[in-house]
């Protein structure tokens, strides 16, 4: 544990008041060390937090949180903020079961006025706070949003600025420009920011900072910087045109620049202000600064060497199987293109881009655009694979409906991180895609039960040219099955029987198949011969197979890695329509519970969700009236 004599004096942000710059600098240094040490034992988002250490200290020194409202965009950079806002004693529980969330969360602290984890929401939320404040007549309270350069690629940020600029509300937006997203940032705005940073005024203030601080000492240097910065607001920037006063760029690691600038804008009450703050992702920790991803998200690591805990080599990840399979298809089909919204590594589109640089597109954090862009490509005869995490596709839903499905355009959705994802918790769970896609007319929706199935699904989608289609697959490693070199396409709307039995039928969609097979073993040992079927399709359903399961078994259980209103609901609907429930079939639908589950290991989350093998066993026994045995199975 690092020595932290200054940080130890800070229990809440008010303890940072009336402190001089030297003290604040020491707090910042110790806060950085504490953040590094904490994340070394928990893993998590490190680089972003290290880049905002000084900014966090300066904000809490200058403003009166929680009365002043501080909204962090994404929230993955908020670990230093958590340490300063009364959560230091639990900081080594970050992202663990029962521990602190890895993001800002309203239920966790009054210093987190707005929860986040999906990007680019902060300016909209902050404007809402500002308008409410004014309606309540509490004008003295300040509202600040901190948003990254990557998050600035999303439409929402501009929708919010457009609105804020016109409303002329007092609102402070801090653009935290570290010239990084998860991967190097993309897009014209990113180039625009880079031009601002290379401008003469920024280079001048950097020189001024260095020279003057040496000559005058920090307090005098701060006064000098303040004088300089007062005269520095530039006209004519994009932000000025949108109605913001633009200040910067300033060096976000220099408290002697940050503090006076923040003090000035705190007292400015003539409308919205944007401070362009230049920072470095991973700042102050050499292994992070040197890493290509600037330690965006890390496993547990050794603080001295920076070496991250390696996972034991296991089966290939679903993501890598997707990438490999798509590359194989694209070798012989030039119309295949791949799209990612700022997640090239996470989706495997980086691998596709290495092989086909002209056919891979990283559009930035812009899921809405990604979907409609794919629709345009499809309309022109290309075969776009939009590889988007289940949770982030939620943002592009109207585009899926309006631009893709209604026009029957053959966009292929490769939906990664389907189901529970573990440490990222509530906000990142891929719970809803089967429901929200399966309800759309004409959509084909599949779920892979293992990596060989995934390879077959990639192949299958190359053949669907008359409408949209999707397949979903979980985060992490596959099951270790052999992956065929030339995968056979699947017959649309056909499932498969994996094991034949007579009393109980388990109909699994996607990644719960292994648990279903374990449950079948257990039920078999209890004298209940059990059929296990892999549905493969949530839409269209394999009606023949499901009707047969309903006819020939006393109990039918559906199971899926998704919320209510998904696969089980579709099956129930179909069986009801066909009158297959009229004869007294004992049917149970096993889904994620109707709550937003907190983070934990994926296994523990499925355990809490009641979707592991023993839960299937108990469900079957309970359906058969063997309640005592069911209770024992769960014990
Ligand atoms: C809507 C949405 N899409 C994708 C992501 C995944 N994501 C999390 S952080 C991040 C990069 C954010 O970059 P930036 O805003 O510059 O913050 P930095 O990490 O550089 O501090 C991305 C793409 C997300 N959280 N939300
Ligand atoms: C903050 C954020 O949204 C991402 O960094 C996310 O945590 C990545 O998740 P994976 O680790 O599953 O790619
Ligand atoms: Mg960034």
Automatic annotation (TrEMBL):
Binding sites annotated in the UniProt record for Mg(2+): 149, 178
Binding site for thiamine diphosphate: 76, 117-119, 150-151, 178, 285, 367
PROSITE patterns: TRANSKETOLASE_1 (PS00801), TRANSKETOLASE_2 (PS00802)
Gene3D superfamilies: 3.40.50.920, 3.40.50.970
Reaction(s) catalysed by this chain's protein: D-glyceraldehyde 3-phosphate + pyruvate + H(+) = 1-deoxy-D-xylulose 5-phosphate + CO2
Free-text comment on the cofactor: Binds 1 Mg(2+) ion per subunit.
Gene Ontology terms for molecular function: 1-deoxy-D-xylulose-5-phosphate synthase activity; magnesium ion binding; thiamine pyrophosphate binding
Enzyme class: transferase
Transketolase-like pyrimidine-binding domain span: 316-481
Gene Ontology BP, a term: isopentenyl diphosphate biosynthetic process, methylerythritol 4-phosphate pathway
Cofactor: Mg(2+); thiamine diphosphate
Pfam families the UniProt entry points to: DXP_synthase_N, Transket_pyr, Transketolase_C
Keyword vocabulary terms for this entry: Isoprene biosynthesis, Magnesium, Metal-binding, Thiamine biosynthesis, Thiamine pyrophosphate, Transferase
Matches recorded under SMART domains: Transket_pyr (SM00861)
Record-listed E.C. numbers: 2.2.1.7
Pathway noted in the entry: Metabolic intermediate biosynthesis; 1-deoxy-D-xylulose 5-phosphate biosynthesis; 1-deoxy-D-xylulose 5-phosphate from D-glyceraldehyde 3-phosphate and pyruvate: step 1/1
Assembly with partners or alone: Homodimer.
Function: Catalyzes the acyloin condensation reaction between C atoms 2 and 3 of pyruvate and glyceraldehyde 3-phosphate to yield 1-deoxy-D-xylulose-5-phosphate (DXP).
Family named by the database record: Belongs to the transketolase family. DXPS subfamily.
Protein name from the UniProt record: 1-deoxy-D-xylulose-5-phosphate synthase
Gene: dxs
């Amino acid at each position: 544990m690092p020595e932290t004599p200054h940080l130890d004096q800070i229990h809440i942000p008010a303890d940072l008041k009336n402190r001089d710059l030297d003290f604040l600098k020491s707090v910042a240094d110790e806060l950085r060390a504490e953040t590094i040490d904490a994340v070394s034992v928990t893993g998590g988002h490190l680089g972003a937090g290290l880049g905002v250490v000084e900014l966090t200290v300066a904000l809490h020194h200058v403003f009166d949180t929680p009365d002043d409202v501080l909204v962090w965009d994404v929230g993955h950079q908020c670990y230093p903020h958590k340490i300063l806002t009364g959560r230091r004693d639990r900081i080594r529980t970050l992202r663990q079961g029962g521990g602190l969330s890895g993001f800002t969360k309203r239920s966790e602290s009054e210093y987190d006025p707005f929860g986040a984890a999906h990007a680019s929401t902060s300016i909209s939320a902050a404007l809402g706070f500002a308008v409410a404040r004014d309606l309540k007549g509490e004008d003295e309270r300040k509202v600040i949003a901190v948003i990254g350069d990557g998050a600035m690629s999303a439409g929402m940020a501009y929708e919010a600025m457009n609105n804020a600029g016109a409303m002329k509300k007092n609102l402070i937006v801090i653009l935290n420009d570290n010239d990084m997203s998860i991967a190097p940032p993309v897009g014209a705005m990113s180039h625009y920011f880079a031009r601002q940073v290379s401008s003469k005024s920024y280079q001048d203030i950097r020189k001024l900072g260095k020279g003057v601080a040496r000559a005058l000492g920090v307090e005098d240097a701060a006064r000098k910087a303040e004088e300089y910065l007062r005269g520095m607001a530039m006209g004519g920037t994009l932000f000025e045109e949108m109605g913001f006063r633009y200040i910067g760029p300033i060096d976000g690691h220099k408290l002697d620049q940050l503090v006076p600038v923040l003090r000035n804008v705190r007292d400015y009450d003539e409308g919205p202000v944007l401070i362009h703050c230049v920072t470095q992702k991973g700042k102050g920790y050499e292994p992070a600064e040197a890493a290509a991803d600037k330690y965006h998200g890390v496993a547990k690591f050794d603080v001295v060497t920076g070496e991250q805990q390696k996972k034991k080599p296991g089966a290939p990840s679903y993501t890598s199987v997707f990438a490999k399979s798509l590359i194989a298809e694209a070798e012989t089909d030039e119309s295949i293109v791949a799209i990612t919204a700022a997640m090239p590594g996470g989706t495997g589109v980086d691998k596709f881009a290495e092989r086909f640089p002209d056919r891979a597109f990283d559009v930035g954090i812009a899921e809405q655009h990604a979907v409609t862009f794919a629709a345009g490509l499809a309309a022109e005869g290309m075969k776009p694979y939009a590889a988007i995490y289940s949770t982030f596709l939620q943002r592009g839903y109207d585009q899926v409906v309006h631009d893709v499905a209604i026009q029957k355009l053959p966009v292929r959705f490769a939906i990664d991180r389907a189901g529970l994802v573990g440490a990222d918790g509530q906000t990142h769970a891929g719970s809803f895609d089967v429901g929200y896609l399966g309800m759309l007319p004409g959509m084909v929706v599949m779920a892979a039960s293992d990596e060989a199935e995934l390879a077959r699904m990639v192949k299958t989608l190359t053949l669907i040219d008359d409408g949209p289609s999707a397949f979903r697959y979980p985060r992490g490693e596959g099951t270790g099955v052999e992956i065929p070199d030339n995968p056979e396409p699947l017959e649309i709307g056909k499932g498969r029987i994996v094991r034949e039995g007579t009393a109980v039928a388990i109909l699994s969609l996607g990644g719960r198949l292994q648990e279903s097979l374990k449950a079948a073993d257990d039920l078999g040992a209890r004298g209940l011969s059990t059929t296990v079927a892999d549905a493969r399709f949530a839409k269209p359903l394999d009606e023949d197979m499901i009707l047969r399961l309903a006819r020939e078994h006393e109990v039918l259980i559906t199971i899926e890695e998704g919320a209510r209103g998904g696969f089980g609901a579709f099956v129930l609907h179909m069986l009801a329509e066909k009158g297959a429930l009229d004869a007294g079939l004992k049917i149970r639908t096993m889904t994620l519970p109707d709550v937003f589950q907190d983070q934990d290991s994926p296994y523990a989350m499925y355990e809490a969700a009641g979707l592991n093998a023993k839960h299937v066993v108990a469900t079957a026994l309970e359906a058969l009236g063997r309640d005592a045995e069911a209770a024992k199975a769960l014990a």
